[in-house]
Amino acid sequence: MLLCCDLNSSDSTEGTYIQWQQKQRNIILPTTALIAAIVSGNAECQSKVRLLGGLRALINLLRQHVELKEPADQDVSFIEHVVDTIGSAIAGHAICLDSAADLGLVSLLIQCIDLSHTPGVDDAVAKQFRTKCILALSICVDQCERNQQQLRDREGLELLIELLTQEQVTTPTRDAETQTDYQETLSVCTTAGQCSTDTRERIPTGEVTQETLSVCTTGGQCRTNTRERVPTGEMTQESSPSSRKAIQRKKRFVTSCKVLTPLTRSKNCSVENDRRGANSETKN
């Protein structure tokens, strides 16, 4: 109740309030922050704030600041704080949402979005302010037909679509250097004429080197692991389990060749000796 009284004490003429808020903003900020913490996710506290006039005081506070002709960065930041508190006070509470419709909160939030385009306001501050206003607007229209109708009547949907389009156009694309991606294709041939392929396509950031490991098995079957790696110093992706198995099979294949080579030679030598022995017996 004391917190709501602090907010309602500002209900006076506009000129008196402007002078008062310039001197007493350091009192309003912690008061609204405490209210937001108390009512967040608590329907009972939301009801008490509404019954004690706190919701009306917050919306009146927002209305008086929205009517400022040339808001500075600190004014926009303060309005953002009030909008955030109002969003906490009405979120998920049907009666509070209905009261917000009576007080014209949707119209005020749309005015706040327009206020963010005021010349002289820092771009980062304005963007964060718009985000808070859109979030509060989404809370306001959630499961409340009256607020939804007010949003349509105020052409709020068109405004949101326009903002979304502007964000997509003006958002700069990421630099190619920050997109440290690459393309990796894993192709495993299981039987003749049949292949299962797992492809990951990414954008390369520079020259790449290709490494192909081919391991041939019996019956004409082959397993191929093709990887494209970024040069040394760039981030690379770990090889897949299929590529590790292919490397292990290659190692086993190479090892078996080294072992079988001497045996093959010795077999050839024994055949040659048998031939020589047969020739000598024929001569005799």
Automatic annotation (TrEMBL):
Region span, Disordered: 224-247
Gene Ontology BP terms: homologous chromosome pairing at meiosis; meiotic attachment of telomere to nuclear envelope
Highest taxon listed in the record's lineage: Eukaryota
Polar residues: compositionally biased ranges: 234-245
InterPro entries: ARM-like, ARM-type_fold, TERB1
PANTHER family in alphabetical order: TELOMERE REPEATS-BINDING BOUQUET FORMATION PROTEIN 1 (PTHR14014)
Protein name per UniProt: Bouquet formation protein 1
Natural source organism: Desmophyllum pertusum
